[in-house]
Specification:
- The strands form 2 sheets. Strands 1-13-12-11-2-9-10 form a 7-stranded mixed sheet, with helices on both faces. It has a 6-stranded antiparallel sheet with strand order 3-8-7-6-5-4.
- The longest helix has 16 residues.
- The mean pLDDT is 96.
- The radius of gyration is 21 Å and the shape is elongated.
- The chain is of the alpha/beta class.
- It binds adenosine-5'-diphosphate (ADP) and magnesium ion.
- Adenosine-5'-diphosphate binds next to helix 3, helix 5, strand 5, strand 6 and strand 7.
C-alpha cells in the first residue's frame, strides 16, 4: 500500500476509535487467522460483584470481615469486589492485617487478628495443605453459572466459599459471531478455572478455551498458536496481558485497560468494544486491496 492509503486508513480507524500505532500494523491485520481474547475486562465488563458467601466453618459475617481485611491489601479486581460487597452488607474489615502476601494467579495470604488467612484458588489451598473435604457440588454449581469461586481458609481449615460474578459486555457475542463468520479461530484465555471459563465462553459463543493459565504463561500460549502457523491477535486489557500482547502478531489493547497494556499493543480499541477487531481487519483488508 502507498503511504497515502496507509494514512487514509489509519485516519479512518481513528475516527471510529481504532488506533493503529503505525502503518505496518494496518498492513498486517488482514492476515490474522486466530484471535485470543482475555476473559476479564475484555470479554467481560471486568467489574465483578460479590454474589455468595457460604460459611462452612464459622459465622458468615465474621468470616467476611476476616476475608475483607485480607483482601483490602490486594490490588486484584476480585479483591475489590469482595471489599465492596462487604461494605454494601455493612460488614467492616475485622482488623488491620499484620502480614500480607499476594500469590500471583492464585490469591492472597494474610494474618488478621492473630488468624492465618488464605483466600484464593483450589491450587492455593493445596499448596497451603488445606483439605477440601466438603462436597464440592456447590462450587461446581456456582462455576457453571459463570461465577468465580474462591476458597477461604482460617488457620489452615477451609472456612468459606466466596463467589463473584462478572457480566459479559453486551457487544461481545455479536463481535465473536462476526469474527467466526470471517473464518477466524476465536480463543478465550484466563487464569480462572475451566468450568467458569466454559460458562462465560458459552454465553458469548466461544469454542476454544485456555483456562487456569498463570499470568506469566499467557505469552507462551500466544507462541504456541503461532508455532502452528497461525497469525495471531492477542486482545487484552490488563498488566498481566502485556507480554502476550507483545508476543502476538498483532497486539490489541482495550482503551479502557491498563496503560502498560496499551503501551504493549499495536492497536488500541478506544471504546473497549470487541466489534472493533472485525472492523480493524476490514479496514486493513480495504487498505491493502484498494492500492496494490
Ligand atoms: P484473571 O485471568 O481472571 O485475571 P488471575 O490470573 O489474576 O485471573 O487469577 C487467577 C485466579 O486466582 C482467580 O480466578 C482467583 O481464583 C484467584 N485469585 C487471584 N487473585 C486473588 C485475590 N486477590 N483473592 C482471591 N483469589 C484470587
Ligand atoms: Mg483482563
Amino acid at each position: 500500500a502507498t503511504p497515502t492509503s496507509i494514512m487514509v486508513g489509519t485516519g479512518r480507524g481513528a475516527e471510529t476509535g481504532i488506533l493503529f500505532k503505525g502503518g505496518e500494523h494496518l498492513e498486517k491485520t488482514y492476515k490474522l487467522t486466530a484471535v485470543i481474547l482475555d476473559k476479564t475486562g475484555t470479554v467481560t465488563k471486568g467489574q465483578p460483584e460479590l454474589t455468595d458467601l457460604i460459611a462452612l466453618d464459622g459465622q458468615a459475617d465474621e468470616l467476611l470481615a476476616l476475608i475483607t481485611a485480607a483482601e483490602k491489601a490486594s490490588e486484584h479486581p476480585l479483591a475489590a469486589a469482595i471489599v465492596r460487597g462487604a461494605a454494601d452488607r455493612g460488614v467492616p474489615p475485622a482488623a488491620e492485617p499484620t502480614a500480607f502476601a499476594a500469590v500471583v494467579g492464585a490469591g492472597v495470604t494474610a494474618t488478621v487478628a492473630g488468624k492465618n488467612l488464605a483466600v484464593g484458588t483450589r491450587r492455593l489451598m493445596d499448596e497451603k495443605g488445606v483439605a477440601i473435604a466438603t462436597s464440592l457440588d456447590k462450587v461446581e454449581q456456582l462455576e457453571s453459572e459463570g461465577k468465580t469461586v474462591m476458597f477461604a481458609a482460617v488457620d489452615d481449615r477451609l472456612a468459606a466459599l466466596v463467589a463473584v460474578a462478572d457480566t459479559v459486555k453486551e457487544s461481545s457475542r455479536e463481535a465473536i459471531a462476526d469474527l467466526t463468520a470471517m473464518g477466524l479461530e476465536v480463543w478465550m484465555i484466563t487464569g480462572d478455572n475451566r468450568r467458569t471459563a466454559e460458562a462465560i465462553a458459552r454465553q458469548v459463543g466461544i469454542e476454544h478455551i485456555m483456562a487456569e493459565v498463570l499470568p506469566a504463561n499467557k505469552a507462551e500460549q500466544v507462541e504456541r498458536l503461532r508455532s502452528q502457523g497461525k497469525i495471531v491477535a492477542m486482545v487484552g486489557d490488563g498488566i498481566n496481558d502485556a507480554p502476550a500482547l507483545a508476543a502476538a502478531d498483532v497486539g490489541i489493547a482495550m482503551g479502557t485497560g491498563a496503560d502498560v497494556a496499551i503501551e504493549a499493543g499495536d492497536v488500541t480499541l478506544m471504546r473497549g468494544d470487541l466489534r472493533g477487531i472485525a472492523a480493524a481487519i476490514r479496514l486493513s483488508r480495504a487498505t491493502m486491496t484498494n492500492i496494490k
